[in-house]
Amino acid sequence: MLVKYRTEYQKLAMGFLSLQPDLKSLPLVQSELSWYTESHERALFLWRDNHDNYNGVIGVELSTDFVVVNEMSLTPAANNETDINTILDELDREYPDQRVMCTLPYANEVMRWEQAHE
After folding, report:
1. Helix and strand counts by DSSP (H, E) for the chain
2. Over the stretch 52-87, which tens digit does the pLDDT of each residue have?
3. Where do runs of H (alpha helix) occur along 38-118?
4. Which CATH number fits the domain that encloses residue 55?
5. Which of 10, 36, 75, 84 has the fewest CB atoms lying closer than 10 Å?
6. Which one, of 106, 105, 78, 3, lies nearest residue 12 by Cα?
7. Which UniProt keywords apply (predicted)?
8. Largest CA-CA distance found in the chain, in angstroms, rounded
């Protein structure tokens, strides 16, 4: 289940963001978190699995026609095709009037998800 980011989730979100290889320092993680929270055109979600465990964070940019996945930082246990497809399904339900797209690092995951829905 996608849970919209709130400030009480700050430490949890920062922990998930720090799983990204390019976000290993605290200032970089804080900057990334601020980037998502300082605009209404971006959103950050925590992802909770069917056992109610938080297993990652998903960052998106929003436009009239698209939801673009910029960040998908998941625990190793959740970083698999089944869970990623579930996350993308939930994003699709959250934004039914927009097409889910992604940045280049997540192109393969989104392409497989789209193919599974054809």
Report:
1. 4, 5
2. 999 999 999 999 999 999 999 999 988 899 999 999
3. 81-94, 107-116
4. 3.40.630.30
5. 10
6. 3
7. Transferase
8. 42
Distance CA 1, CA 50 (A): 7
Query: Nearest CA to 58 among 40, 79, 30, 82?
Result: 79
Domain total for the chain? 1
What is d(CA 10, CA 33) in angstroms, rounded to the nearest whole number?
A: 8
Give residue 99's domain range. Answer: 2-116
Token pair of 116, please? 């599974």
Element (H, E) at 36: helix 26-37
Extract the tokens encoding 60.
């998106």
The pLDDT value given to residue 24: 86
Look up residue 33 and give its two tokens. Answer: 């978190």
Judge whether 36 and 22 are in contact, CB under 8 Å: no
Which DSSP helix (H) or strand (E) runs through 71? Answer: strand 66-74
In terms of C-beta density within 10 A (0-12 exposed, 13-18 middle, 19 or more buried), how is residue 66 classed?
middle
Helix (H, G, I), strand (E, B) or coil at 58: strand
